[in-house]
Write a structure and sequence with these properties.
With about 325 residues, the chain is mainly beta. The chain has a single domain, classed as Tachylectin-2, Chain A (5 Propeller), CATH 2.115.10. About 10% of the residues lie in helices and about 40% in strands. The chain has helices at about 10-15, 20-25, 65-70, 270-275, and strands at about 50-55, 55-65, 75-80, 85-90, 100-105, 110-115, 125-130, 140-145, 155-160, 170-175, 180-185, 190-195, 205, 210-215, 225, 230-235, 240-245, 250-255, 260-265, 280-285, 295, 300-305, 310, 315-320, 320-329. It has a five-stranded mixed sheet with strand order 1-20-19-18-17. Strands 3-4-5-6-10 form a five-stranded mixed sheet, with no helix packed on it. Strands 7-8-9-11-15 form a five-stranded mixed sheet, with no helix packed on it. The longest helix has 9 residues, at about 10-15.
Length: about 325
């Protein structure tokens, strides 16, 4: 409900009585300003020279499938399934269908999930974790790419993760109850990173260049276009490609073109503050061509990457789809 100044007591009571009706009649475009947060974060606390190394992870999965076998045209985001920890779920970027692709840890194609009613303008990342119904796992698909900086608003699709624990493969599932979270940012940029804070259920998006960072506080609006809260731009590295917060909320990983950085989040702390003001460490990562996918497993012990691939105007594929996993020692 929009905030109104100098409202009379009678009007206030009337608004409370009619609150439910106002919600159901919400306009398609909510132009209210976001609630003021504490402050915009800066990077004054450390520089790249301060970053150390964490060698506590080992490359445990390094699997390649040929393009004809893996069904992928591109790979823009990855998460570990929660209903079947042996599976990873991958989204693809612009020019592809409204499908998510599921693979096992040997990079073998298992099946697809179609998002009914969804449009793939430019799906750039995917997240998984809690949502509106307690105890239920949700998949979040970030339709947040905007290379031309021309989109009026960006979107995140949210739906309950299907049970993949005992389904026959190859499968072709359809998610019918898909919600869409539309939002605006104060400066149009290309975004490639979507993260879910599993403790607060807030969503965090980061731009590619200079990592313009915004927060969408829970509960997110699914009936109007919201204004995301601007939190600053991260200058540790210039081109941020992917990121994820571990399902236990303890770790953040952010990937640029050639390295992966990790932060540990103290209990009760704000992950955005930690990411901007605490010194990270670098974790193992085999550099990829255009690698733009990074995600944790359900147990928060392994992070996955997959090499992006695409087909140019001449029909020539660039890159090889290599699935890698790095597990805590």
């Amino acid at each position: 409900m929009k905030a109104v100044q100098n409202i009379s007591l009678t009007s206030l009571l009337l608004c409370c009585m009619l609150g439910g009706a106002l919600v159901s009649c919400n306009n398609d475009d909510d132009n209210t300003e976001p609630e003021a947060e504490a402050h915009v974060f800066s990077n004054t606390g450390y520089s790249y020279a301060d970053v150390g190394t964490d060698d506590g992870y080992t490359l445990t999965y390094d699997n390649l499938q040929s393009p004809d076998e893996n069904q992928l045209e591109s790979s823009s985001g990855i998460v570990g399934s929660h209903s079947n920890p042996q599976y990873v779920i991958i989204c693809q970027g612009s020019g592809t269908d409204n499908l998510l692709h599921v693979f096992n840890r040997e990079a073998e194609f298992q099946g697809s999930i179609e998002l009914a009613g969804a449009e793939n303008i430019d799906w750039q990342d995917i997240a998984i974790g809690p949502g509106p119904v307690d105890g239920q796992t949700y998949i979040y698909v970030g339709d947040i790419g905007d290379r031309a900086s021309s989109r009026d608003f960006l979107s995140i699709y949210r739906f309950e993760e299907p049970d993949l624990s005992s389904i026959n493969t190859p499968f072709a599932l359809t998610a019918n109850d898909v919600e869409r979270i539309d939002f605006r940012v104060n400066e149009k940029k290309d975004f490639q990173t979507l993260m879910l804070d599993p403790l607060s259920k807030d969503l965090i998006v980061m731009g590619t260049m200079q990592a313009m960072t915004y927060r969408l506080r829970y509960p997110q609006n699914t009936s109007a276009i919201s204004n995301a809260d601007y939190k600053g731009h991260h200058r540790l590295r210039r081109e941020i490609k992917a990121g994820d917060i571990s399902p236990d909320g303890r770790y953040i990983i952010i990937k640029d073109v050639g390295e992966v950085f990790k932060w540990e989040v103290p209990e009760g702390d704000d992950p955005i503050r930690v990411m901007f003001e605490d010194v990270p460490v670098k974790v193992p990562y085999v550099a990829e061509i255009e690698g733009g996918a990074l995600g944790w497993t359900k147990d928060s012990q392994t992070y996955f990457t997959i090499t992006d691939t695409d087909i140019n105007a001449n029909g020539v594929r660039r890159g090889q789809p290599i699935l890698r996993g790095y597990t805590r020692n």
